[in-house]
Specification:
There is one protein chain. The chain is an alpha+beta fold. The protein has two domains: 50 residues, no CATH class; 92 residues, 2-Layer Sandwich (GMP Synthetase, Chain A, domain 3), CATH 3.30.300. Helices cover 25% and strands 27% of the residues. The chain contains two helices and eight strands, in the order βββαββββαβ. The protein has a three-stranded antiparallel sheet, with no helix packed on it. Strands 5-6-8 form a three-stranded mixed sheet, covered by helices on one side. The protein has a two-stranded antiparallel sheet with strand order 4-7. Strand 5 and strand 6 form a beta hairpin. Helix 1 packs across helix 2. The longest helix has 23 residues.
Amino acid sequence: MSEHFATVDWAAGPEPFTYETYTRDHAWQFPGAQPVAASAAPEYRGSAERVDPEQALVAAVASCHMLTFLAIAAKKRIEVLSYRDEAVGVLDRNAAGRLAITEVTLRPHIVFAEAPSAEVLEKMHHLAHEQCFIANSVNCAVRVESA
């Protein structure tokens, strides 16, 4: 099918390499794309101004759902003017007692040229969820709360 590449680049800073002091800052690089400044979440001694892996996972789920939804809308000739999702991921203990993103809630706010019925919109979100590559790759619950 296809392969997708990412390079994660980290180097030690001037601080001693101890749990309390080593830098969590690093960069994500993708072929042909701008690098992304990444770090651990601030709760895990990371930099708040950088993207953390948990945020990236939530964004990947939301982005994939959106792109799949837009493809479905375009094929149905339902014109979308804008799409904004204020997604939330929950970091909690999973059934095995390990920390994991256990749930992602998508909250898309979509503006249409001519809004479809609530039933059609619900079916479109259901199809987008079923066809989203990322949602099919994670084992946490993914819910869509339509506005």
